[in-house]
Design brief:
By secondary structure, the chain is an all-alpha fold. It has ten helices and no strands.
Length: 267
């Protein structure tokens, strides 16, 4: 079994801290991003939704940093790397929207220039560690695996749409998006979808506890964001209903996964 390298573990802990700070800033300061974030995010519901993604990323990164082996961390590490790379590309495309004359904007740009190379080097070192990547737990319950497969596929597709066709995505999203906010949300939706896909592929209950809790938290926090900023929703009740139903499904799947992982750990 390949153990996690100290370098990768340190990077994961560090990035978990950054995700925690970003989640706090976006959740608590959803109405004040012009003054207290790296770019102005409107409406506030978008900031709160992005904050929920950062909170979920914090939980994912923390679970990966605490993992004892690479096989237990890779379902998080690879998608988080993809999110970081995509956010770097988005930043460069929309650089004029960032507050590069202020500390928050400079820090964002610097962080996303540094994060992907650091992760790439750490992953390359990790993959050179000798050993096998064997299953560490039992197989996923069939219903959980099916739910994650369906939700993961939908999130990957939705993330691609938000990233590649932001104008089209904005037409069917339940609240107003700009090209930048569409792509920022798309990066996280794509990444979480990849986490679900890798969990399904690995079919391993052993490392599931951390991702399941993050999944549950994401659903709960997205519902809270909508409840807190419901005035930002558009007039398309169908789009809102579909969005809320899908987010609720994520919450339920995360809860189911947490229960299954806990039951396995006690067996």
């Amino acid at each position: 079994m390949r153990t996690l390298t100290p370098a990768l573990r340190l990077i994961l802990y560090s990035f978990a801290g950054l995700a925690l700070i970003a989640g706090l800033m976006l959740t608590a300061g959803a109405n004040d991003t012009d003054d207290w974030f790296s770019w102005t995010i409107l409406p506030p519901l978008t900031a709160a939704a992005l904050g929920a993604f950062y909170w979920a990323s914090f939980l994912l990164l923390l679970s990966a940093a605490r993992a004892s082996s690479w096989v237990a961390a890779r379902a998080v590490v690879l998608p988080v790397t993809a999110i970081a790379v995509v956010l770097l590309v988005i930043t460069l495309i929309h650089l004029d929207r960032f507050h590069t004359d202020r500390l928050f904007g400079i820090f964002w740009v610097a962080a996303y220039v540094v994060v992907p190379p650091l992760l790439a080097v750490a992953i390359a070192q990790q993959l050179r560690v000798p050993g096998e990547d064997a299953r560490v737990g039992g197989r996923l319950p069939m219903a959980l695996r099916a739910a994650l497969a369906a939700e993961g596929a939908l999130m990957v597709a939705a993330g691609a749409l938000l990233l590649l066709a932001p104008d089209s995505a904005a037409d069917i999203w339940p609240w107003a998006l700009t090209p930048l906010t569409s792509r920022a949300i798309g990066a996280f939706v794509l990444g979480i979808g990849l986490v679900a896909a890798i969990v399904v592929r690995d079919d391993d209950l052993g490392p599931l506890a951390g991702p399941a809790i993050a999944y549950l938290a994401l659903g709960a926090l997205q519902l809270l964001a909508v409840a807190t900023h419901s005035s930002d929703l558009g007039d398309d009740d169908l789009a809102t209903g579909i969005y809320l139903a899908f987010v609720a499904a994520i919450l339920v799947t995360g809860a189911y996964g947490s229960i299954a992982a806990r039951a396995f750990s006690r067996s």
